């Protein structure tokens, strides 16, 4: 399985992947989307958005038939090699996963200004949300 950078022609397939996995994801501006396929089917995807120049990892989804095989780890490592500084938000239940990948759980006040309002907006819908930073 190879990780690929999506181009414009891939976006409709990626949107269908998210929808079929019951995840609402959208692309904004200069997003980069990385995805993995198996037998020409998308099985994992992640989106990196750029708020100002700050990379923000979100929409990390692995098809349930392929979970627990290390695909999420592979795709996040791929992003980390391309981008030395990444922020993300995730439920507290995923803290060990992100820490294992080198992310640090941080106070939301330590987020870049461009991400703080986004964090508080998301936190209104999920009060168990944590902020994470990866610094190479």
UniProtKB/TrEMBL annotation:
EC number(s) reported in the record: 2.3.1.-
Leader sequence residues: none
Gene3D superfamilies: 3.40.630.30
InterPro entries in UniProt: Acyl_CoA_acyltransferase (IPR016181), GNAT_dom (IPR000182)
Listed CDD domains: NAT_SF
Keyword Transferase among UniProt keywords: yes
One GO MF term: acyltransferase activity
Keywords: Acyltransferase, Transferase
Residues forming coiled coils: none
Amino-acid biosynthesis found in the keyword field: no
UniProt name for this protein: GNAT family N-acetyltransferase
Source species: Thalassotalea fonticola
């Amino acid at each position: 399985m190879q990780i690929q950078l999506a181009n414009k022609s891939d976006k409709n397939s990626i949107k269908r992947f998210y929808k079929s996995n019951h995840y609402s994801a959208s692309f904004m501006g200069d997003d980069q989307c990385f995805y993995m396929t198996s037998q020409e089917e998308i099985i994992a995807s992640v989106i990196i958005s750029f708020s100002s120049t700050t990379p923000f990892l979100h929409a990390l989804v692995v098809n349930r038939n392929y979970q627990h095989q290390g695909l999420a780890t592979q795709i996040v490592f791929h992003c980390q090699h391309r981008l030395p500084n990444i922020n993300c938000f995730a439920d507290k239940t995923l803290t060990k996963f992100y820490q294992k990948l080198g992310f640090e759980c941080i106070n939301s006040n330590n987020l870049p200004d461009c991400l703080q309002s986004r964090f508080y907006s998301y936190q209104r819908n999920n009060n168990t949300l944590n902020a994470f930073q990866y610094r190479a």
